[in-house]
Write a structure and sequence with these properties.
282 residues; alpha/beta; 8-stranded mixed beta sheet; two-stranded antiparallel ribbon
């Protein structure tokens, strides 16, 4: 760009559990083209990936961190229960005889790279986390204060992750109210990029899915429909939907395949950014 100031880009990263690994190759496209978002909003897994990028860590470095985490089951166990000196009892909480919840804040703290700041105010790029206030039944956006509790609330899939208590109230997955939070990165921006990884339930054929698969798949139906309604009402400028429907919510160990499935979405992003940057340079 011939000395022209870079346009202000708002970036929204949606929720979709393991499918959210698809966000990483798209962040690499931003780096490849030498542009940075001016503000980022994330829901669920989008908040976990987005906060690392907002900390100034490149897409390639996030890819490397993901490989270290999920490259092998043993490596993941060593990271969670070795490097950070965590015990399995730190992660699992027996809420009742029939309910086993992952302690979400401890999990988030373990998964984040060590050089990610622990407060919003210390990030390089302004960042917003979308959570759902379970008791007030409302969407909530957090962009100040401690990071870990906010991200923990945003990824707290009901029935799997332990809800997070913020300001005395329970909060759960941000996807329940806003699966792709592009509406929170519009103000003052020249254009908005949104990445939707909500997908849909994976085809099961003749196989009978587990109760957990049905529960999480049903949530993805809700997330998908909600994202579509929000998009129809007020669409973002660039809307990307990586081809990740074939992956299940828990397919984190298939991270290579998930990233490889983003090739078309990466090219679509490159083309769209070239057009927008050329317009700004004209």
């Amino acid at each position: 760009m011939s000395g022209t100031p870079q346009p202000k880009i708002g970036l929204a990263l949606g929720g979709g559990a393991a499918r959210g690994i698809a966000h990483i190759p798209l962040l690499e496209v931003f780096d490849e083209m030498g542009v940075k978002p001016a503000v980022i909003a994330g829901t669920s897994i989008g908040s976990l990936v987005g906060v690392v990028y907002a900390a100034g860590i490149s897409g390639a470095e996030i890819r490397q961190h993901t490989e270290r985490l999920f490259g092998h089951r043993l490596d993941l166990a060593r990271h969670l229960f070795g490097i950070r000196k965590a015990r399995i009892t730190d992660l699992l909480s027996l809420a009742s005889f029939s309910s086993l919840h992952i302690q979400t804040e401890k999990l988030v703290d373990m998964l984040l790279p060590d050089d990610v700041p622990r407060r919003f105010e210390d990030l390089e790029i302004p960042f917003k986390v979308v959570v759902t206030d379970y008791e007030q039944m409302t969407e909530r956006v957090i962009d100040t204060g401690p990071l870990v509790p906010a991200i923990a609330a945003s990824i707290a899939i009901p029935g799997i992750f332990q809800p997070t208590r913020l300001d005395g109230r329970l909060h759960v997955d941000g996807g329940v109210t806003n699966p792709v939070p592009f509406d929170h990165v519009r103000e003052g921006m020249d254009f908005v990029v949104a990445v939707d990884v909500t997908g849909r339930p994976r085809a099961v054929g003749a196989k009978t899915p587990s109760n957990m698969e049905v529960a999480v798949g049903s949530m993805h139906i809700m997330f998908h429909r909600l994202a579509e309604m929000r998009r129809a009402l007020n669409p973002p400028d660039i809307y990307l939907r990586p081809a990740v429907e074939q992956f299940a919510s828990g397919d984190f160990l298939r991270w290579r395949e998930i990233m490889a499935a983003t090739t078309e979405a990466q090219e679509n992003l490159r083309r769209a950014l070239r057009v927008r940057l050329a317009e700004a340079d004209a």
